[in-house]
Design a protein that fits this description.
CATH architecture of the largest domain: Roll
Strand order of the largest sheet: 1-9-8-7
Distance between the termini: 52 Å
Largest sheet: 4 strands, mixed
CATH superfamily of the largest domain: CBS-domain
Radius of gyration: 26 Å
CATH class of the largest domain: Alpha Beta
Number of helices: 13
Number of domains: 2
Number of strands: 15
CATH topology of the largest domain: CBS-domain
Structural class: alpha/beta
Helix content: 25-40%
Order of helices and strands: EEHEEEEHEHEEHHHEHEEHHEHEEHHH
Strand content: 15-25%
Length: about 350
C-alpha cells in the first residue's frame, strides 16, 4: 500500500471547524431563530448533473443545522434542527417564545488543543448522542463548531470507505408513511422514533413499497419558517422527490459521493423489488470512523492477511513437495528426449 493512499486517512482538521457559526442572544424570538437557520449561508451553486465529478463541485455551507446562544461572550446553550422537530411534535406554539426557553444546556464542548483528529469528535458524538460539538480555547471562549455534516463533507477518498458496503452500516428499520400523512404527524413520527426523516411510500403490488419522496428535519425547519399550517399540509405536496436509491452492495464511498453530489444527509436503500428497505445517514457513515469500529475492522483485516499468508505458505510447501517427488525421474526423462 502506497504512503499517499493509506487505509485510514485523517483529513485536515481545520476544514471540519465552522469558524462562523450562527449566534443569537437569549432574548431572540424562536421564530426569528428559525428564519435564520432556514437561510442559505455561503454561496450555493446551481444543481449539477448526476455525472459531475465530485471534486469539481464547489463546497458551500448551505442552511445551518444549529444556533449557539451567547451573551457577554459566554456560551449559554445550543438549538438544533432536531429541537425544532420535537417542539413541532409537541404542538407548542412558537409565537412569543424566546430561544432561552427552549435551548439545550449545558453545551458539549472540546478545547481546540484536544482536537487532534476527527476520531475524538466522532467518539463524543456517539457517546453523547449528539451531532454538534462546540470548540473552545483554553479560556473557554468560542472558536467554532464541528458537526457530523462538516466532518462528512471533508472526508477524502479513503480506502476504508471503499472497503465497506452500505449493508454493513445501514438502518433497516426505515420509518415510512403514505403520501396523505400530514406534516405534523410526520414530525411526531420523527420525534417518537428518534429519526431524522420519514420516507413517503406507496404499495408497489409486489408485497413491498415504492418510495415517492422524503421529508426531513431540515424540511420541518423550512416549513416552520414559512409559517405553514403543518396539520393541514400533506406530505405529497412538500416531500422531496424523486429519490436516488442505493443498493446494499454499493460501497460506503459511493454513498458518501452521492450525499456530496446531491447535497443531502441521507439516502434510501432498496433491494428485492422493494421488499427490502433501509436508509443510510451521515451518522451511519461516521460509525466507520469510530475508533472502536476501526479497531474491529483492522483486526479483521489482520486476520485475513494472516490467513492468506498461511495459505500461501501451504501452497508453496505443496508445490515444493510435488517438485521434489519428480526430481529423481528428471534425468531419465531428459535422456529419453535427447535420444
Amino acid at each position: 500500500m502506497q504512503p499517499n493512499d493509506p487505509l485510514i486517512y485523517s483529513p485536515a482538521l481545520e476544514e471540519a471547524i465552522d469558524r462562523n457559526p450562527l449566534i443569537v442572544t437569549p432574548d431572540t424570538l424562536l421564530l426569528d431563530v428559525i428564519a435564520l437557520m432556514s437561510q442559505a449561508r455561503g454561496s450555493r451553486c446551481s444543481l449539477t448533473e448526476a455525472n459531475t465529478p465530485l471534486e469539481s463541485i464547489p463546497s458551500y455551507e448551505g442552511h445551518s443545522s444549529s444556533v449557539l446562544v451567547m451573551e457577554d461572550n459566554q456560551l449559554l446553550g445550543i438549538f438544533t434542527e432536531r429541537d425544532i422537530v420535537w417542539l413541532t411534535a409537541d404542538g407548542i406554539p412558537f409565537e412569543g417564545i424566546k430561544i432561552s426557553e427552549v435551548m439545550t444546556q449545558p453545551v458539549l464542548t472540546m478545547p481546540e488543543s484536544n482536537f487532534q483528529d476527527v476520531f475524538a469528535a466522532i467518539f463524543l458524538f456517539r457517546r453523547n448522542q449528539v451531532r454538534h460539538l462546540v470548540i473552545v480555547d483554553d479560556q473557554n471562549q468560542l472558536m467554532g463548531i464541528v458537526s457530523q455534516e462538516s466532518i462528512r463533507r471533508m472526508l477524502r477518498p479513503a480506502n476504508l470507505l471503499k472497503l465497506r458496503r452500505v449493508s454493513e452500516v445501514m438502518t433497516t428499520q426505515m420509518i415510512h408513511a403514505p403520501a396523505t400523512t400530514s406534516v405534523l404527524n410526520l414530525a411526531r413520527l420523527m420525534a417518537e422514533q428518534r429519526v431524522s426523516c420519514v420516507v413517503i411510500t406507496q404499495e408497489n403490488g409486489y408485497g413491498g413499497f415504492f418510495p415517492l419522496g422524503i421529508v426531513t428535519e431540515r424540511d420541518i425547519v423550512q416549513f416552520q419558517a414559512l409559517r405553514l399550517n403543518l396539520a393541514q399540509t400533506l406530505a405529497q405536496t412538500v416531500m422531496s422527490t424523486p429519490l436516488f436509491l442505493l443498493h446494499p452492495q454499493d460501497t460506503l464511498w459511493k454513498a458518501h459521493q452521492e450525499m456530496q453530489r446531491r447535497r443531502v444527509r441521507r439516502l434510501v436503500v432498496s433491494w428485492d423489488l422493494g421488499r427490502g428497505w433501509g436508509i443510510i445517514t451521515q451518522s451511519n457513515l461516521m460509525r466507520v470512523f469510530d475508533p472502536v469500529e476501526m479497531y474491529g475492522v483492522i483486526e479483521i483485516l489482520q486476520r485475513t492477511i494472516e490467513q492468506l499468508e498461511a495459505e500461501k505458505a501451504e501452497l508453496l510447501q505443496s508445490h515444493k513437495a510435488e517438485l521434489e517427488q519428480h526430481l529423481p525421474y528428471l534425468p531419465a526423462q531428459l535422456n529419453q528426449q535427447a535420444d
